Structures are given as structure tokens and as C-alpha cells.
UniProtKB/TrEMBL annotation:
Name the record gives this protein: Alpha-ketoglutarate-dependent dioxygenase AlkB-like domain-containing protein
Gene3D superfamilies for this protein: Alpha-ketoglutarate-dependent dioxygenase AlkB-like
Keyword tags: Dioxygenase, Iron, Metal-binding, Oxidoreductase
Presence of the UniProt keyword Ribonucleoprotein in the record: no
Presence of keyword Iron: yes
Amino acid sequence: MAANEALTNPLGDGESKEQDPFYQRFKYYKCKKPTPDYSQVIDFYRPENIKDIGYAYTTVPLGAHMDGLSHQQSMCGLIPPAEWKVYTLDELPGFSFIKNPFQPNLHRRILHRCIHDFPTNRNRCNKLYNDFNLDSIQENIWDDSFELMRNDPSLKMKKTLMYKLRWVTLGYHHNWDTKEYSPDDVTSFPSDLAQLSKYITNVLGYHTYSPQAAVVNYYRMYSTLAGHQDHSEYDMEAPLLSISFGQPAIFLLGGDTKDTAPAPMFLRDGDIIIMAGPARKFYHAVPKILNSKDMEALEVSNQEVGQKTLDKNLNKDEKNCTNCLQLEECLSNKTAELFESGDAKQIAGCDVDCAKTEIKNPPGTPGHNPKSVKDSTTPCVCNDEPCWNEATVSDADWVLFEDYLNETRVNLNVRQVFKPGETFPDQMAS
Ligand SMILES: O=C(O)CCC(=O)C(=O)O
């Protein structure tokens, strides 16, 4: 692990040489001053730009290969797969990106699981204090932190255990020192997370995926994760599923060695990536968690690009819209049309003259959230399985989680450890 990157899980392998192309790019995006140029970062919310910066993307039609599910049938809390926007990149075989498919209930619920339920004394987490272990907390780190704050109102979040939390492991607990799993260190894998992971991978055509281990990473705004490969799993064919929440990040995905310069991409709240096939073994890293200032700068440049695209796509009458309401109508018709034609073109917000009635995040723009447009009325496939929709998080509770998330990125990294039907090599009958 590189000394200055010890802030999240200790996967960084520390082997980076200053001159290797992976590290060069890592260092570039990690740098605070000068601010890196984000124009070369792949942004799946502006797919037409991906080609301009030299990558070839494909949109993946979904539904055909879903095992036993209609492509209109949604798992509770996810938009129907027919509406998912899924991209692959020619340069990264086996990699897929799914634009945030979460609806509000599931989004809240899963974050409640990550922030409240998983950091508990039944799981493993990073060392929070030298003489402290998880057994000494009552139940979970979140409640303990708030208990402390309640008892001592002068105590700020920064002083609590929650603030020091960097990772939690679930199921088979990965040992970062030996880089191994052990039959003696396992707790039951959360069934709701298993169900969600299986559903997502199934939609993408991986029908036998069996989640057995997970790492939940908690990034503060200054955290980074150094370049590494995930190769502790016995099954390196099964896909790795990675879901991002909270603050956006730059994610780097390279090749089998650090000699390949990695592709930089934005991962935002709710976005999902899958690393399968060759990409399962690719080096990857998180050099930067972005703050609102970075994102504002980005939104400005998005609007410039978006405006050009808008001009290209709007016809003469539409360009003559004289006020915001008219423009809004034109835009929503046009975006609907573009989306129906399957062409996720980018449409900018209202123009500056109409700033007061600006259209917030129309479809296809960064920040657009499908969940705010449509809530689930589609059939739920949970049947007798645990249903993510059952317990929602109240608005009052959510305020506290939102506060925490304003300065945190949570990454849920789910892995299959064993090949189907197998277990640890020394435990298998010969
Ligand atoms: O935070 C991420 O997006 C990646 C996390 C990761 O690579 C890991 O946990 O191995």
C-alpha cells in the first residue's frame, strides 16, 4: 500500500513506480493543485463525448438474456431493466456501466444498510482506534456515534467512530494482510444484498452469480484507493459488482499490468459497474472523490456542451421558443423523442435568460435521476424473498444519513469467492 493512500481499504499494492502509466494517471487525478482537467474523463451521462475523447462505447440492449424474467418486470425499488442505460467500452472488454437504476425507497434502504446495519459488531471493519475493536460497541457504529454525540453535544461527527470508518467486510471476510479468505472467518451474507446482486447480474446475463463476500468502502472527501487487482477470489470468472453511493468519484480502470494507462470515468450516486471477463483482473483505483465545487465546474462545461447539442437537435421552431415555459415544453418533447429512439443524446437545461425557471436535470443530463421521474408501479419479483421496499427510512432519519453522505462516498463491492459447487481447496474431497 502506498503510504499516502492508506485512507481506505489497504488494497493498494504499493508496487507502483513513479513512471508506470497507471500511477502517472492516478497521480494526475489525485492532484488538488492544479485542478486536473476533467474533460478527458469518460462521462456516461454524456455518451456522445466518450467518442470525442477516444473511447468506443456500445449501449447494451437488455431483456433478451434475462433468465426467466420479463424485461418489464422490475425488482422492488429498481426501474424496469428495459429502461436501464447500460454501456460497455471496446477498450475494456468485460466491463459494463449501468446508470443509476435505483428508485428512492431502495436508494435509502440500501444506504441505511451500508451506513447503519453493516458496521456492526458481527462484521469486520478497519481499526478505528488502537485499543478498540468492534466487540466494544453496543450494536452498531452509527448508533454508538450518535449516542456519544447525544451524551456530549460538543462532540462533532469528526470525533466519532463513524468518521473513522473506512471499510466493513461481509460474508467471507477478506484478510487484508494475508490477502486470503478463511473458512474460520465468515458470517452470513445479507440475504437482501444477495438478492439485489443476483438480480443485477442476471439482468446483464450472468445467471449463476453467487455473492459470497462484500467490502463496503467508506470514502471521506480526501480518501483515495491505490491501484490494485482483486485476485483473492478462487473464482476469477464470476463478475465483480460495484455500486457507488453518495459523493461522485473518478474511477480508473486499466489492464492486466500497470503498463496500461487506465481509462478515467466518473461514478455518481447509484451508478453500478460490473467487471467480468478480462476486466475482472484489470488494475483499478479511485484517485479522487469529487466535491460540489468540482462538480459545479463540471456542470458548467456540461451545459456548454449540452447547449451545442441542444442547438443541433432542436429544429427552427423550437429554437424560436421565446420563454422558459415554451422551451421547457420543447425540451421535454424532444427528450422524450430522443429517448424513445434509444438515442441518449444530451439536452442542456434552460438557457441563461430564463435562469429562474430553469429545467432541473432533464433526462440524459448529469444529475438526472430516473427515480424522481417515475416510481415503481411495475410488478415486483421479490416473491418470498426479503423485499427491499418493506422498511423505508423515515424522512427524519434520512436527514442524518444525508448529512453524513454530503461528505462521504460509499462503495459496495460484491464478489463471488468460489467456483460453483466448490469451497476452499483444502476442504474439497479429493
Ligand atoms: O470504490 C470503488 O469504486 C472501488 C473499490 C475497490 O476497488 C475495492 O474495494 O476493491
